Amino acid sequence: MSEQAADVTGVDGKRDDDYEHHGGFPKYEAVTPGPDWARFVEGMRTLQDLAVSVDAPDDVVAQAADQVEKLAAVLTPYVVPEGRSPAGRTIELPGRGSLLMPPWHIEKFGPDGVRSAGEFRRYHLGGNGAAHGGTLPLLFDDLMGMIVHAYGRPISRTAYLHVNYRAITPLNTPLTVEGSVDRVEGRKTFITAQLKKGDTLLADCEALMLELLPGQP
Ligand SMILES: CCCCCCCC(=O)SCCNC(=O)CCNC(=O)[C@H](O)C(C)(C)COP(=O)(O)OP(=O)(O)OC[C@H]1O[C@@H](n2cnc3c(N)ncnc32)[C@H](O)[C@@H]1OP(=O)(O)O
């Protein structure tokens, strides 16, 4: 596995060295894992979709449970501390290779904003064919983290995230989410973002990201 430093150049061209100065906050670096990582993650996503959508006979469920337990036993010896797994650090993969994140691709990443595109899948179903309402704040919150970083701000945490649901968010449909920094006031970064299907607004979001003080977790 090769490691490379993520681009942490700020808007003013200075490096965001504050990243180093928050005791205990792990440093995340982009990685390019071996070719099977993408296959593994996509296979796990398919399993997640299936786990929430099948109604199989008992013997089939028993067989699946046996195999899942065997797979867990294979992987358990390789658990590493936060920030060391390729999950969440593989920039070129959907959701950066993390199962927690919806499988979306970053299309634009810079001080003027971040955009990503993708689809919600069966795993993200809320009801009546729509994405679960809780998946949208997840998508927005992750975007906010990327926007604050792309803007060159120091490590910040979400103080609030206000989501307006404007229209039903469909599954298995290409969507985009895009946002940018509106203004900075001291430690506060105010950001807005929109989730769209084509030109149709599905949801919009306003967030306050607060720069962490030294020692804040
Ligand atoms: C690797 C990169 C990781 C990126 C993270 C991605 C984003 C995330 O999902 S983070 C996880 C979700 N967020 C959290 O868990 C945060 C939990 N909360 C906290 O840790 C703290 O409340 C924290 C750090 C946000 C603020 O605490 P603290 O530093 O004590 O701030 P505090 O002094 O109360 O407030 C500072 C200012 O912000 C304002 N403020 C704080 N919270 C809010 C709020 N919810 N709404 C409005 N204003 C607020 C205060 O009024 C104050 O304003 P002013 O200076 O004008 O008086």
UniProtKB/TrEMBL annotation:
Q: What keywords is this UniProt entry annotated with? A: Apoptosis, Cell membrane, Cell projection, Cytoplasm, Fatty acid metabolism, Hydrolase, Lipid metabolism, Membrane, Transit peptide
Top-level taxon: Bacteria
Q: Which Gene3D superfamilies is this protein grouped with?
A: Hotdog Thioesterase (3.10.129.10)
- Per the record, GO CC terms? cytoplasm; membrane
Cite the residue spans of the region called Disordered.
1-27
What is this enzyme's EC?
A: 3.1.2.2
Where in the cell does this protein reside? Cell projection, Ruffle membrane; Cytoplasm; Membrane
Domain named Thioesterase is located at 128-201
Instruction: Return one Gene Ontology term, BP aspect.
Output: fatty acid metabolic process
This entry's Gene Ontology molecular function terms read: hydrolase activity
Q: Which InterPro entries match?
A: HotDog_dom_sf, THEM4/THEM5_acyl-CoA_thioest, Thioestr_dom
Q: Which Pfam families match?
A: 4HBT
Membrane topology recorded in Swiss-Prot or TrEMBL: Peripheral membrane protein
Q: Does the keyword Isomerase apply?
A: no
Which reactions fall under this protein's catalytic activity?
A: hexadecanoyl-CoA + H2O = hexadecanoate + CoA + H(+); (5Z,8Z,11Z,14Z)-eicosatetraenoyl-CoA + H2O = (5Z,8Z,11Z,14Z)-eicosatetraenoate + CoA + H(+); octanoyl-CoA + H2O = octanoate + CoA + H(+); (9Z)-octadecenoyl-CoA + H2O = (9Z)-octadecenoate + CoA + H(+)
Composition skew (Basic and acidic residues), residue ranges: 12-23
Which family is annotated? Belongs to the THEM4/THEM5 thioesterase family.
Q: What is this protein called?
A: Acyl-coenzyme A thioesterase THEM4
